[in-house]
Amino acid sequence: MSGKMKCSLWGSGALFLVALAAWLYQLRQGLILTNMVNSFSWGLYISGLAFFVGNAAGGLVLTSSIYLFGVKQLKPLAKLGALTAFANVTAAMLIVLPDIGKPFRLYNLLLHPNLMSPLVWDVIVLNLYALASAIYLYILMLPELTGRLGWLAVKVENAHDFSEKWAKRIAPVALLFAIGIHVVTAWIFSTQGGRDWWFSPAMAPDFVSVAIAVGATVVLLAGALAYGTGKKYEEAYRTLGLIIFIATCVHLFLMMNDLVIHAWYGNGETHRIMEIAWGDFAGFHVFEVAAPLLGAGLLMLPVVRRSMPLLALSSGLLIAGVFVHRFLIMPAAYNNIPMTITPFGLPNTHWSLPIASGRFFPGLDTFLDQYNYSPSLVEVVILLGIMAYAVFLILLAVAKLPILAKEKA
Amino acid sequence: MKMGMVIDLEKCIGCRSCMVACKQHNAQPPGTWWNRVFTPGSHRHLTPPAKGVEYFLPVHCQHCENAPCEKVCPVGATFHAGDGAVLIDFDRCIGCRYCMAACPYGVRQFNWQEPERTHERSEYQEKYHYGYPREHHHDGRLVYTPLRPKGVVEKCTFCAQYRDKGELPACVRACPGKARFVGDLDDPDSEVSTMIKARDAFTLLPEKGTKPTVFYLPPKAREV
Amino acid sequence: MRIDRREFLRGAAGAGCALAFGLKFFHFSDDPAAYAAEMEQLVRSTCSPNCTGACGFKARITDGRISTLIQAADYPEDSYNPRGCLRGLSMMDLIYGKDRLKYPLIRTGARGSGEFRRATWEEALDYAAGRLKEISGKYGPEAIASTIQVPGTGYVQKGALVALTGLAHWTMHHGYDQNGDLPMFWPMTFGVQSEELESLEWINARTTLIFGSNVIQTRLPDAHHLLEAKRRGRVVVIDPDFCSTAAKADEWLPIKADTDAALGLGMAKIIIDRKLYDAAFLQDFTDFPILVRRDTGKRLLAGEVLALAADARARTIPDYRRLFVVRRGHDFQILDPEKLNPTLAELEGEYEVTLSDGKVVTVETVFTALQKTLAEYTLDKVAAITGCDAARIERVAVDAASNGPLHIIYGASNYQWYNGDLKGRALSLLPVLTGSIGKSGAGISTYAGQYRIRFNVKSWWFPEGSKINWVPYLHFLQGKGPRYPEHGIKAMVGGWGNPFDQHNMNNTLKERATSGELEFILTTDFQMSTSCMWSDVVLPAPSWYEKYDLTATILHPYLQLQQPAIKPLFESKSELWIFRELAKRLNPEFESHFFPQLDENEAALKVIELLLETGGQETAGITLEMLKKGPVRLHSPAPGDRQVPFYEQVQHRVPFPPPSYPAPLKATAQFLRSGRIEFYKDEDLFLKEGEQLPVHKETYVETEYKVNPAARDKYRLRYVTKNSLYRVHSTHSNNTILLELQDNKAKVFLNPGDAGERGIANGDLVRIYNDRGKTRAYAVLDPGCSAGTAIFEEGWWSRYLGDESYNSLTYPWIKPLHEIYFVPGMWSPTTVWNECLVDVRRMKA
Ligand SMILES: Nc1nc2c(c(=O)[nH]1)N[C@H]1C(S)=C(S)[C@@H](COP(=O)(O)OP(=O)(O)OC[C@H]3O[C@@H](n4cnc5c(=O)[nH]c(N)nc54)[C@H](O)[C@@H]3O)O[C@H]1N2
Ligand SMILES: Nc1nc2c(c(=O)[nH]1)N[C@H]1C(S)=C(S)[C@@H](COP(=O)(O)OP(=O)(O)OC[C@H]3O[C@@H](n4cnc5c(=O)[nH]c(N)nc54)[C@H](O)[C@@H]3O)O[C@H]1N2
Ligand code: SF4
Ligand code: SF4
Ligand code: SF4
Ligand code: SF4
Ligand code: SF4
Ligand SMILES: [Mo]
Prior knowledge:
The complex is a heterotrimer.
Chain A: H1 3-29, H2 44-68, H3 78-96, H4 108-111, H5 118-141, H6 159-190, H7 203-227, H8 234-265, H9 268-280, H10 282-299, H11 302-306, H12 308-327, H13 331-334, E1 340-341, E2 351-352, E3 355-356, E4 367-368, H14 377-400
Antiparallel strand pairs in A: 1-2, 3-4
Chain B: E1 3-8, H1 17-25, E2 36-38, E3 57-59, H2 68-72, E4 78-80, E5 86-88, H3 98-102, E6 109-110, H4 115-120, E7 136-138, E8 141-144, E9 153-154, H5 160-163, H6 170-174, E10 180-184, H7 191-198, E11 214-217
Parallel strand pairs in B: 1-11
Antiparallel strand pairs in B: 1-10, 2-3, 4-5, 6-9, 7-8
Chain C: H1 5-21, H2 32-40, E1 42-46, E2 56-62, E3 65-71, H3 86-89, H4 92-95, E4 105-107, E5 116-118, H5 121-139, E6 144-147, H6 157-168, E7 171-173, H7 175-178, H8 185-190, E8 207-211, H9 215-218, H10 223-232, E9 234-238, H11 244-248, E10 251-253, H12 260-273, H13 279-285, E11 291-293, H14 309-314, E12 324-328, E13 331-335, E14 350-354, E15 360-365, H15 366-374, H16 379-386, H17 390-402, E16 406-410, H18 412-415, H19 420-433, E17 443-445, H20 458-461, E18 469-470, H21 473-478, E19 491-495, H22 499-502, H23 508-515, E20 520-525, H24 530-533, E21 537-540, E22 549-551, E23 558-562, H25 575-586, H26 600-614, H27 624-629, E24 632-633, H28 647-651, H29 665-669, H30 684-689, H31 704-707, H32 711-714, E25 717-722, H33 736-741, E26 747-750, H34 752-757, E27 765-769, E28 774-781, E29 789-793, E30 837-842
Parallel strand pairs in C: 6-7, 6-19, 7-18, 8-9, 8-16, 9-10, 16-17, 19-20, 20-21, 25-29, 26-28
Antiparallel strand pairs in C: 1-2, 2-3, 4-5, 4-21, 11-15, 12-13, 14-15, 22-23, 23-24, 25-30, 26-29, 27-28, 27-30
Helix pairs in contact in C: 5-25, 6-25, 12-16, 12-17, 12-19
Bound molecules: ligand MGD (2 copies), iron/sulfur cluster (5 copies) and molybdenum atom.
C-alpha cells in the first residue's frame, strides 16, 4: 500500500469516526443539535440522501450499460462503477440514520411497514440496490479472486465466462434498480402535494438524469485517480464525458422546464418559491446551473481529460453543483411555510401561517413564517463523515480487492 | 361515527385560550404549539392587516380523511382511529419527520430533545411541568404521554385522553367565545352537520384534497 | 379535598353522549376506580387577578401539584359557561414559575438592587414591626400608608390589611382612584361610585354603543354576550383604534382621541332636535325640569322663592338634600327630593320668579340650558371635532334612539383622560334621554377593575376603634393635599399590587425609595414583582389556589370562593395570617380581631361566615356551604337578582342614588341633592370652569400645554397605554407561555404614516420618550392605529423594558373639580394615564 493511500485511509477513517462520535452525541442530546426547526424539518441529512443516491446510481448504470449495450470502452471502469455504487448507496442509507429521531426503532420498518409510504419503497430499493451492486462487484471480481483471496471465490467451472455471462444477465436488473432508486427517491418528494416546490412529475426523470451525470462523474474521477489520465483510457473517458454532458443538459432542461411552469403559473405559493429560489438563494441557483454546465462542458475537451488537475477541477465543479442542487431541494420547500391562504377581505394577498419552531430560544420568536436554515456544525461533520466513509470504503476496496487488477481486455 | 369539529369564525374572538388550553392539557413544552390562532394577513396577532379588516383563524390538525401524513408514515405510527381522528403512536414513531413534510397545514411538531430538558427552559420551580398527568392508550396504542419521548412527532389528538372518557377536548371546554363544536359528521342531524349545511362551512386548502374533518363557518361581513 | 360531584356527573353525562355517538373506543379508563380517584382530585377555585373576570376554575391535583386547569363552567346560567381565558388557563406558570417567592426576605443591598437574604417568618415580622413602630413613633401613624388593590377579589385576605390599617390609624390609598378606574362622571351624574349591567344583560340591548372599551380583550369571558347582542341588535364601536372589538362589531366609528364628549353632545342634540327623547322619564327621574337662575348660574332653591319659602321651611329633609323648584302649568312647585312621583313638570321654559327679597330673576329649566349648550354642537362642527362622518353620526344617533334598549359601554382607557368626566357626562345623556335607565339591557356601564364592594363589610374591615386617614394616591405622588400627613408618607405597606411598575409616575416611587424619603417598604406578593425588588421586607403569600377567600366581580353577580387546591407553596402564608402576626407585634390588643385561636384556613372560613351573616340584603340567606358547592348569585332588587343598575330607582321610584359600599348613603347622596340624575352641577368650581353642563374641552390644554407650551411641537404622539390580552396589568408579565405568544417582546403600535415619518420599520426597537421619562419597545406598524397615537400595552415589568418603566412617562395630573368633595374611591382625584404626550425614535442597535 502506498503511503498516500495509507494516509488517505487513515484520514477518511478518522473523519468517519469523528462523525460517528458526533452522531452518538446527537443521539444523546437529540436533534436539537441540528439547525432544523419544525418549519424546516428536513435539512442537510436528507439533502445528503439525495446526493449519495445520485452518486450511487451512475456507477451501476455505467457498469450495466457496458454489458447491456456493449459500451466496451468503459469496461475498465466496470468494477470501479459497481464499487462506487455500493459505497454511495450504503452512504445514502447511513446518512438517513442521524436524521431519524428514534433510530433504534427502525425495526418497526420490518414489523409494521406501511406499503403506501414512498419511504418504505425507498428503503426497499436502496437495500436491493446495495445488494445488487455488491453482487455485481463480486461477479466482476470473481475471475480475479485467486491466491490470497481465493477463499472468497465460489467454485465455478470457468470463472471468467461465468462472470461475463452473469454480468450480462444481471445488467438489465441492475439498470432497473439504478433507475429505480432515483425514481423512488424522487417520489419521496414529488408525491407531496403539500409542497409545491416538490410536487412535480419532472422530479423523477430529473433525478435520473442528475444521477447519470454525477454518477458518471464520480466514476470518471475515481478512474482517473486510480488509473491516471493516460492514453489507454482516453476512449473510456471521452465516452464518459459525453454521457455526463448529455445527462447534464437533460437535467438542466428538466429543471428549467419545471421552473418555467412554476413561474408561469405564478400563484402565491409559486411566487414565494421563485422569490426564494431566485431571490434569497440566487447565488446558489446560479451555481447549481453554471457549475455542472461548466464542469460537463470542460469534460468534453480532450485537454481537460488529459490533465489530472483540470479533470479533477471539472468533475469537482459538477459534483459541487449537483450537491448544491440537492441542497436546494429544501429551502424553497421549507423556507416559506407552504400553507398559504388568501385572507377574507384581502384579495390578491397570499399569507403563510406561522409555525411554532419547536425549539424555544429565549428572547426570540417562537412562531416562524420564514426560517433561513443553514446546517449546524454537527450536521456538517456528520455529512463529511459519511462522505469520508464512502471514500474510505472505495480506497480500502481498491487496496485490498482486485478492483484495478490488471485487466486483459 | 366520524368525529368532526366546527369552528365558528364569527364567534371566534381570537383570544387564544384554546391555544393555551391545548398546550397546557397536552403538556407541550416551550416552543411547541399544536394549536395556533392567527389574524390572517397580519404578522402580529390582533393587529389588522389593513384598516378595517380583521378576523381570527384557529388552526390545528385537520384530521384529514385523506391524510397525507398517514400515507407517508413508513411504520404506520400515524393512524386513523375508529372515530376518524388521526393519531400518532408514540411507541412506534421513528421520528423520520416525513409526515411533517407531508402535512399541508404545518401542524406537526417534533421533539428535538428530551422533554424534561425543554421544560427546563421555562425554569419552573422544582422541575414542575404541567399537563394531563397520565399516559393514555387508544386501541392499545400510546397516543398520549405527559413527557413525549425525544425524537418523535406529535400533534393535536382531538384530546384522545379526554374524549375516550366522554369528555370534550380541552380547547372546546376552554373556548370562552363558545366558537368550537364537536360531533358526529356521519349523523346528518348532529349539531355539527346542521351547522355545516346551514352556514356555508368551508375547509382549509380544499384544493389539496385532504378532506379535513375540521370545518370553519365564515365570519360575517361588517361595516367600517 | 372534596369529591367533585358536578364533575363526576358531567363525566357520566359525557359518557352518555359518547355512547350515543357510538364512540367505538369509548371506555372510562382501564380502571374505573383510578378514574374516579383522579376525579376526586379536582378542586374549584376562582381566578382572581386584578381583572374583571372572576372566573371559576377547576384544578386537577396530581401528587400535590396542579397538573391542569380548566374552567369550572358551573354557573347556573349556562350562558356564563365557560368563563375563563388564556391567562387563567396558564396560571400554573406563575404558581410554579421562576419568580415565585419562597421565603420571607430582608433587603441587604441598595434599594432596587434585588439583593436580599432569606429570613425566618419570626425574624421578618419582628423586623417589620420594629421599623413600623419606629416610624409611627417618629412621624405619627398616618406617615405609614397601606394599599390593597381591587377588594372585590379578596374580601377576607385584603380585609385583614384594611382592618390592621384602621386599628393602627395608618393612612390608606384607595386603589380605585389610584388605578384611574374611577369614572368621575358617575358620582357627578348618578351619585354612585359606578354601576354596570351584568354581562348576561348585554344581550337584551338592541343598540350597544361601545366608547373605547376593548371588550373582546378586557372583558374576554363576557365577550360572547356582545356577539349575541350583535346578533339580536346592533353593536357600534367608537374608538380611535381598529381594536379587536371594533373588528367584531357591526360598525366602527373611528374617532379622534379624546373627542367623545363632542360626539355625545352632538348625538344628544340630534335626539332632542328630533324629539326622540322620553319626556316622562326626564320629568320624573332627572334634573331636567329643575329651574336654574340665570344671574348666578345656581339652581333655584325653594327657600329663595317668595311663594315657596314657607312651604320649604316646613319640610324636613335630610342634610344632603335640597329643595329645588320646577314649573308645572302656571305654578312654581317644590321638587320633592325624597320621592320620585310623576311631576308633570315643564321640561322647557324660561320664567321670571320673585325671590323672598323681592328681587325678580330669570330662571330656565336645566333642559333649556342644556339645549342652549347643545346649540353649539351642530352636526358639522361635531364632525369636524371628532373626525367622524356627519351622516354616520346622525344615523347612529337616530338608530340608537329608535332601537332601545340602548346600552353604552364606556371604557377605562377612554375615561382615563383629564376631561374623562366630561365625556362620561356627555355620553350619559344618550341612555338618559331615551329612558334607557333602570331597565333590562339598558344603561351605561363602566367595567374597570374589581374594585366593587358588593355587600356590607364593616364587621371584618372596620373593627371597633378603627380610624383610617384616606389619602388619594395622586396626593401622595404630588406630595401634598388636604389630608396629606404632616411629615409626608414615610412607609408603604402593600399587597396585591405592583405600584413600582404600575404607578411610579415620573419615577416618583423609585426616586423616593432611592433617596430614603421612603424609610420603609413592605410588600406581600406571591412572586418577585418589581415592587418586591424595591421593598425592604418581602413576605411570600399564597396564590388563589392556595387559600380561602371570597370573590365577586362587576361582570356577573356571583359570589364565589377561592379554595386551597394545594398547600401554600414553600413557606408562603396567607395575608390574614401575615397581618394578624404583624398586628400582634404592633399592639397585642389588635390580635383579637383576627381570630387568633384559629389556624389561617379556619380563620378565613370564619371570616367568610361572618361576612355572609352581616353582609346585608345582598348576602341574605347565602351560606358557606352553598358557596362550597358552587357560585351563588348575590341578591339585588331586580327580578331574578339580575344586576340592572337603578332598577329600584326607576321601577319603584326610589330616589337616587342607591348606596355605594362601604360608604354611608349620606356620603354619596350629597352628590345628588335633588335625588335625581343630575346633569347640572352648580358647585362654584363647576361654574368657574364652565362645566355646569357637559361640554367638550380640548386635550392637553390644561395639562401638557399649560405646563410646557413647547410640548405642542416637541411631543406629537398621544401615549395611549391600554390593556393587553396577555396580561392582567403586570400580572402574567413573566408568564413564559404567554410570552411566547408575544414573541417575548414588548411592542408599541404606530400608525404607518407616523412610523414612516420617523424612519421606523416593523420590528425596529424604538425609544418612547418625553421630558419626564423614557421606555422602549418594538415597533408594530398598525394600519388600524389612528395617526398621532402611540399605543403601548401597559403592564410590562421594567425588567422587560431595559429597566425603563413605561410609567416613567405619565404624570399625576389632578383636575380641581375632583377635589370638591372627598369620599375615598368615589369622589376623589383619579389617575389619567392617557393624558400624556410622547414621541418615538428608532434606537440605534
Ligand atoms: N386582558 C385584560 N383585561 C383586563 C385587564 C387587563 O389588564 N388585561 N384589566 C382590567 C382593568 S383593571 C381595567 S381598568 C379594564 C380596562 O379595560 P378597557 O376599559 O377596555 O380599557 P383599554 O383596554 O385600556 O382601552 C379600551 C379602548 O379605549 C380606546 N381609547 C383610548 N382613548 C380613547 C378615546 O379618547 N376615545 C375613545 N372612544 N376610545 C379611546 C383604546 O383605543 C382602546 O381600544 O380592563 C380589565 N380587563
Ligand atoms: N400607564 C398606565 N398605567 C396603568 C394603567 C394604564 O392603563 N396605563 N392601568 C391602570 C389600571 S386600570 C390598574 S387597575 C392598575 C393595576 O395595577 P396593579 O393593581 O398594581 O395590578 P398588577 O400589576 O396586576 O399587580 C398585582 C400584583 O398582585 C400580586 N397578587 C396577585 N394575587 C395576590 C394575592 O393573592 N396576594 C398577594 N399578596 N399578591 C397578589 C400579583 O402577583 C401582582 O404582582 O394599573 C394601572 N396602571
Ligand atoms: S378559544 Fe375560542 S374564541 Fe378564543 S381563539 Fe380559540 S376558538 Fe377563538
Ligand atoms: S392536518 Fe396534517 S397532520 Fe393532521 S391529518 Fe391532515 S395531514 Fe395529517
Ligand atoms: S415521524 Fe413518526 S409519525 Fe411521522 S412519518 Fe415518521 S414515523 Fe410516522
Ligand atoms: S382537540 Fe385537544 S389536542 Fe386538538 S387542538 Fe383541541 S385541545 Fe389541542
Ligand atoms: S385572568 Fe381574568 S378573565 Fe382570565 S380567567 Fe382569570 S379572572 Fe377570568
Ligand atoms: Mo383598572
